[in-house]
Amino acid sequence: MVFAPGEKPGNEPEEVKLQKASKQIVQNVILQAVQQVSQESQQREGRRGAKEGSFRLGVGELTKKHEKK
Predict the structure, then answer these.
(1) Distance (Å, rounded) from C-alpha 19 to C-alpha 21?
(2) What are phi and psi of 68, to 5 degrees?
(3) Where is the composition biased (Basic and acidic residues) (predicted)?
């Protein structure tokens, strides 16, 4: 195996460790962001439901109402 100047045979496992750690960090950040968006969405729905007396249109109902006009 040929190594570049300054590169040592033991660097490859360290690089793999860093890649795995980086991947884990990215996955954690994405998971946290998804959870935050989900919580904020649920909170908005809760506020909206309280304001509207828990009335919500089903999927496609708004479109159907506009088509009738």
Answers:
(1) 5
(2) -70, -25
(3) 42-54
Rounded Cα distance between 24 and 32, Å, is 12
C-alpha span between 68 and 12 (Å, rounded): 66
What is the distance between the alpha carbons of residues 10 and 7, in angstroms, rounded to a whole number?
Answer: 8
**Which residues contact residue 49 at a Cβ distance below 8 angstroms, ignoring those fewer than 6 apart?**
55, 56
- Rg of the chain's alpha carbons, rounded to an integer? 26
**Residue-by-residue pLDDT tens, the chain, 69 positions:** 556 666 666 567 899 999 999 999 999 999 999 999 999 999 988 877 665 554 555 555 555 555 554
Q: Specify the pLDDT at position 12.
A: 73
Distance (Å, whole) CA 18 – CA 7: 16
